Amino acid sequence: MLRAGIVGLPNVGKSTLFNALTSSKNAQSENYPFCTIEPNVGVVSVPDERLMVLKDIVKTNVVIPTAIEFVDIAGLVKGASKGEGLGNQFLHNIREVDAIIQVVRCFDDENTIHVSGKINPIDDIETINTELALSDMASIERRIERLNKQVKSGDKQAILEHKVLTKLNDLLSDAMFINIEEHFEEEELEIARATQLMCIKPVIYAANVSETDLAKGNAYVDKVKEYASKHGADVVVISAKIEAELVDLSQEEAKAYLSDLGVQNSGIERMIQSVYKLLKLTTFITAGEKEVRAWTVKAGSKAPQAAGVIHTDFEKGFIRAEVTAYKDFVEAGSYAVARDKGLTRLEGKDYIIQDGDIVHFRFNV
Q1: CB–CB of 224/207 below 8 Å?
Q2: pLDDT tens string 146-194
Q3: Cβ(8)–Cβ(102) under 8 Å?
Q4: Which of 145, 181, 256, 313 has its CA 20 to 30 A from that of 138?
């Protein structure tokens, strides 16, 4: 399952956001640093209105959306890479996620203390990025040291790995997140990914604002967007406080509330969409009387790979995929009509799954 880690300095709204994301009160949310000592984990359904439309068409009562696992990680402080605060524990938890959501405080509130005593979102971002980079550099230095003997002996794989690690170390000196696809050749990318460095993970900056700034943002948000645009990151403007309030409302009430605030979708929905975009993910659907279910694959995945997400036997024994585009299926109103109109296609091993494809796999084990 896809995992996203929620990180940030103490008192920026991480745990409040996590509670809203998971519609729970599992993560404490108090006005002091290190409130969240153990990482809290919650599984969040990915909103997809298409599933409910399909539910009525195929006449099933079971709808299973795809999901993301969110991890709320203890607040970071300057010096974490050297063990300050909850340093090593915090950094270990980040290494295990697929994407990083960095919550940045973009609101003024004299009743909520800031760990550095002032509100400066760029300073906050750079504090975290520096600590991640320093920890990654220390990890790389240990790896390089272990490789030196093999490099001297002329081991080609060790020489290539040494080259990749050295280049990563140089890039980390700028203390920012790295898009490795921009800096490495194909044969080097596998080595770079295998390092599991924190600074090569996709990052979203969640600009946490007050209720009044949710629709249009503020000067703090503008600075975060400017910073993110220079570093290839995404920004989602949220109000953790508002998201927490939405938890107790019905779907209709929540939409009306957001509309009054001048926004269409919740910050959580936009954040999940951003995670999908950053990680280049797409969704296909299986639909029948038993259930309607969404599945997540990497964009560009071929039909056998998608089948393997459901069950490894489906991929091994893949024969063909029966595919109907979502829009075509809804217009047809049934599988029978979709087939009669030629809207359903039989695709082979080279077919690339498209977002919203309704798929039935034929396989032989």
Answers
A1: yes
A2: 998 899 999 899 999 999 999 999 988 876 778 888 889 888 999 999 8
A3: yes
A4: 181
